[in-house]
Amino acid sequence: MFTGIVEELGEVVAVEHLGDSPSATAGDAPDRAALLRLRGPVVAEGVKHGDSIAVNGVCLTVVDHAGDEFTADVMAETLHRSSLGALAPGSRVNLERPMTLGGRLGGHLVQGHVDGTGTITERIPGEQWEVVRVSLPAALARYVVEKGSITVDGVSLTVVDAADDHFTISLIPTTLALTTLGIKKVGDPVNLEVDVLAKYVERLLAAGVRDPQEIVR
Questions:
Q1: What pLDDT, in 10s, does the model give residues 20-37?
Q2: N or C: less crowded end of the chain, CB within 10 Å?
Q3: Distance, CA of 162 to CA of 166 (rounded, Å)
Q4: DSSP helix, strand, coil percent of the chain (3-state; round to 5)
Q5: Is 157 helix (H, G, I), strand (E, B) or coil?
Q6: Between the CA of residue 121 and those of 109, 160, 208, what are the distances in Å?
Q7: So where are the chain's domains?
Q8: What residues have CB less than 8 Å from 129, skipping those under 6 apart?
Q9: How buried is 16 (Cβ within 10 angstroms: 0-12 exposed, 13-18 middle, 19+ buried)?
Q10: Is 2.40.30.20 the CATH classification of the domain at 8-19+32-96?
């Protein structure tokens, strides 16, 4: 579990594309996994094999580490459903370690399970902040509400305006300077994770739960 408060702007050192997935069938496009090697002195300090680190909002498992670098496996499914498939050596990435029990929840509850990707469609600079418009997949629109929470490339943000096909966010100077959202351009993809609480509420209502007491029984 993460909070969406990016600890460090890291860098992709190497990308190794692995063999075809055993599930690939004849005639299908090859399902290739990848091995990412990333540099991040802050998150790599004290890291152990099996630890989780969010990379642009995607929870990955550390399989190797040395110095200020660590390596993580990325399944073909993850490459298809997130923007990690577009990473190359030199790409900058948002990094965050999992929250600890008793720590401050500075953002909101983030699982590191990307629900889909959007595209930056507009950037409107201001004197103290910048407004960014992001396209929104139709399947996620019902979970995004004005003044609600959303995770964009692993960054916990507040929705300014929400529509059926897009939403806007306001970025303060700190976010622009310390995350990839300061360097993303119009047309660039971003990973989106909606508020997990909204999905659980939807599931409960679909199951016919109307009395809150039924949830805790």
A1: 544 444 334 446 799 999
A2: C
A3: 6
A4: 20, 40, 40
A5: strand
A6: 26, 15, 38
A7: 8-19+32-96, 116-202
A8: 170, 171, 172, 173
A9: exposed
A10: yes
User: How far is Cα 132 from Cα 126, in angstroms, rounded to an integer?
Assistant: 11
Write 169-172 long-range contacts (CB < 8 A, 24+).
169/131, 169/132, 169/134, 170/129, 170/130, 170/131, 170/132, 171/129, 171/130, 171/131, 171/132, 172/128, 172/129
Predicted local confidence at residue 212, as pLDDT: 55
What pLDDT score does 124 carry?
Answer: 95
Q: How many residues does the chain have?
A: 217
3-state secondary structure of 47: coil
Closest by Cα among 65, 86, 63 to 153: 86
Q: Which two tokens stand for residue 66?
A: 């040395």
Domain pair 8-19+32-96 / 116-202, same fold: yes
CATH topology of domain 116-202: Elongation Factor Tu (Ef-tu); domain 3 (2.40.30)
Q: Which residue has the tokens 């109307």?
A: 210
Please give the radius of gyration of the chain, using alpha carbons only, rounded to the nearest integer: 18
Q: Are 12 and 91 a contacting pair, CB within 8 Å?
A: yes
Cβ–Cβ < 8 Å for 33, 16: no
Q: Per residue in 178-206, pLDDT tens?
A: 999 999 999 999 999 999 888 888 888 88
32, 41, 163, 187 from 85: Cα distances, Å? 10, 23, 27, 16
